[in-house]
Amino acid sequence: MPQAVTFLCFKGCSTCAKARKWLDEHHVAYVERNIKEENPTESELRAWQAEGDVAIRKMFNTSGQLYRTQHVKEQLDAGMSDDDAIALLASNGMMVRRPIVVGDGFALFGFQEKAWEDALL
Questions:
Q1: Is the Cβ–Cβ distance between 110 and 97 less than 8 Å?
Q2: Model pTM score
């Protein structure tokens, strides 16, 4: 049996609910982690960024209130360093794009059904 993936989500997020339903319907074993209560660490984010081959900018929850009130887009556009961006992401789980699914050798940010199918089925 495949090892369970880690599913980072927020209970109040409709996209996370859709992703959870997809995992359940496809019988994917997962361990759920509340991204708000147990935000990702800098080392986790660095590892996931590398495993997911995703631009750090794409790891931000751009529709979140924190992203807007802290003017993160403007900071990124002004040349925020990767180290500062990772530190900002690690400071609050609500800053991070969700859901995230992490498995052996992969990390996916956001729910894109085709990418999830390719990685998990």
A1: yes
A2: 0.93
Contact by Cβ (8 Å): 119, 110: no
pLDDT tens digits, residue range 33-85?
Answer: 999 999 999 999 999 999 999 999 999 999 999 999 999 999 999 999 999 99
Q: What is the CATH number of the domain that holds 99?
A: 3.40.30.10
DSSP for 57-87, written as a single string: GGGB-TTSHHHHHTTHHHHHHTT--HHHHHH
Token pair in block for residue 52: 């997911």
What residue numbers bound the domain in which 15 lies? 5-120
Phi-psi region at 106: left, alpha or beta (left = phi > 0; alpha = psi -120 to 50): beta
Assess contact for 110 and 118: CB atoms under 8 A: no
Identify whether the C-beta of residue 111 lies closer than 8 Å to the C-beta of residue 13: no
